[in-house]
Design goal:
Elements: E1 10-20, E2 28-37, E3 40-45, E4 53-56, E5 60-64, E6 66-68, H1 89-100, H2 105-121, E7 124-131, H3 140-150, E8 153-160, H4 179-193, E9 205-208, H5 216-229, E10 233-237, H6 241-251, H7 255-261, E11 269-273, H8 279-288, E12 291-294, H9 296-301, H10 309-315, E13 318-321, H11 334-349, H12 356-370, E14 387-391, E15 416-419, E16 422-426, E17 429-430, H13 435-450
Parallel strand pairs: 1-4, 1-5, 6-7, 7-8, 8-9, 10-11, 11-12, 12-13
Antiparallel strand pairs: 1-2, 2-3, 5-14, 14-15, 15-16, 16-17
Length: about 450
């Protein structure tokens, strides 16, 4: 058992119209069964038997659970904030920072519950989270507790900001921390929560917020700490033109060069956005195994641009999807994010440049690769039992000739979702915790922030 969860028996998913395995060959199985036992997939085929629960999947497409590689869960409390709705990145941040400074532990916990539930309903079984501010006693522990209650596989990252306005940074001084304290608390949360085992429900990462909110020294020290502890590294990079201009003015180099100089490239690193990477930076990421969290809806919302995903994929860069924060999206629907990723590459490069299946692969196996997970992202014996079941017998898929092309004509809400073989969503409803109560509390907390 993991994380104190109860032992699980068998579940047989029977008779799926199509199973999209996301294996190396891109195998698609018709009329297939999937047998789950003790949190793992033990068999995929036809005519499978069980003495456990049977979940009928006729008229359904089954995919691996989607993987969200970049989020700021606390921002589900600040959707559609006036004054930030039509701003570019830096102006948007300056509008939101004072509001976020009024949050505390309960806001972090409840917003994470609601944000993770929203992801679950969109087919997501694994999510990272980039929490880089800790006002009024908030801790990374708050979001980890929420993820445990919701039941999603979780990659929380201990973010940080250390350069406030008085030192030339963007955030107010009240939201920055001393760098020694940041490193000490990062060690604490890794030691307390990180699980390096296969099938882990929690893996902690190290994540200074961005090159414009922490010092060169903290970026370098964070990389050294992460490698000493054997955990992954994450930050924002090359998000928009302002980001590039800041890097060139402050550091005398482009963001990719700055990252490489400070040890922020490699298979244990993934960067959010990467909208403005040039050809040399793309080659650097491909050569070093550095991953990218592509956040198309947020990049559209903030006017940041279209990330060069086609060029990255063609060069061999690992690319996953991220919904980003709900204050810049303003949603947390990962299958809708995959559709947007597909559409933007078509707009930029032509209708034949990204298929629905490739975009869905980025959302599943691509995200798993970015997060350094080879135990999820596929439907195959030995992989963890993280599965999304999509009902393609309804309105959204009516008339579709290819029901497996979910991103062209299909639902944006799952029928059933299993994480580690445990049900999180059944019949379109979250069953792992009381979502209605959390939403009601979230609305109360948001109104208090407005006041």
């Amino acid at each position: 058992m993991r994380d104190g969860a109860r032992a699980m028996g068998e579940i047989l998913i029977r008779g799926a119209e199509t199973v999209l395995t996301m294996d190396n060959a891109g195998t698609e199985l018709a009329g297939a069964d999937i047998l789950l036992r003790d949190g793992a997939i033990v068999a995929v085929g036809t005519g499978l038997k069980t003495t456990g629960e049977v979940v009928l999947a006729q008229g359904c497409v089954v995919t691996p659970g989607l993987v969200n590689t970049h989020h700021h869960l606390y921002q589900t409390l600040t959707r559609a904030v006036p004054g930030g709705q039509d701003a570019l990145l830096f102006g948007w941040l300056k509008t939101l920072y004072p509001i976020w400074a009024r949050m505390g532990p309960e806001e972090m916990f409840v917003s994470a519950q609601v944000g993770l539930a929203e992801l679950a309903l969109s087919g997501c079984t694994t999510s990272s989270d980039h929490l880089y501010l800790y006002p009024n006693g908030a801790r990374l522990d708050d979001t980890i507790a929420a993820a445990r209650e919701v039941g999603l596989r979780f990659h929380p990252t201990r973010g940080s900001m250390s350069i406030g306005e008085s030192a030339g940074g963007l955030p107010p001084d009240s939201l920055v921390e001393r760098e020694a304290a940041i490193l000490d608390d990062t060690i604490r949360v890794i030691d307390a929560f990180h699980d390096a085992r296969a099938g882990a429900m929690v893996r902690v990462g190290v994540a200074p917020c961005s090159p414009f909110s922490v010092s060169r020294e903290l970026m370098r020290d964070a990389a050294l700490l992460a490698r000493d502890k054997g955990v992954m590294l994450h930050t924002h990079l090359a998000e928009n033109d302002e980001d590039i201009a800041y890097s060139e003015a402050q550091f005398g180099m482009r963001p990719g060069q700055y990252a490489e100089e400070l040890g922020w490239t490699g298979a244990d690193v993934w960067h959010a956005h990467a909208v403005k990477l040039d050809a040399a930076e793309i080659a650097l990421f491909a050569r070093s195994g550095t991953g990218v969290a592509h956040c198309p809806c947020s990049n559209c919302r903030l006017g940041s641009g279209i990330a060069p995903v086609r060029a990255m994929r063609d060069a061999g860069v690992k690319v996953g999807l991220g919904v980003d924060g709900s204050a810049s999206n303003d949603a947390g629907n990962l299958v809708a994010e995959a559709r947007m990723a597909m559409l933007l590459q078509r707009v930029a490069h032509g209708a034949d440049k990204m298929s629905a299946r490739e975009a869905l692969r980025i959302a599943t196996r691509g995200g798993a690769e970015v997060l350094g997970r080879d135990d999820i992202g596929q439907i195959a014996p030995g992989k963890r039992a993280d599965l999304a079941i999509w009902d393609v017998s309804g309105l959204e898929s009516a008339g579709s000739w290819d029901k497996a092309a979910l991103l062209l004509a299909g639902p944006t809400r799952v029928r059933d979702l299993f994480v580690e073989g445990r049900p999180v969503v059944r019949d379109g409803q979250v069953v792992s915790f009381d979502l209605g109560r959390a939403v009601a509390r979230q609305d109360v907390l948001a109104r208090a922030l407005i006041g």
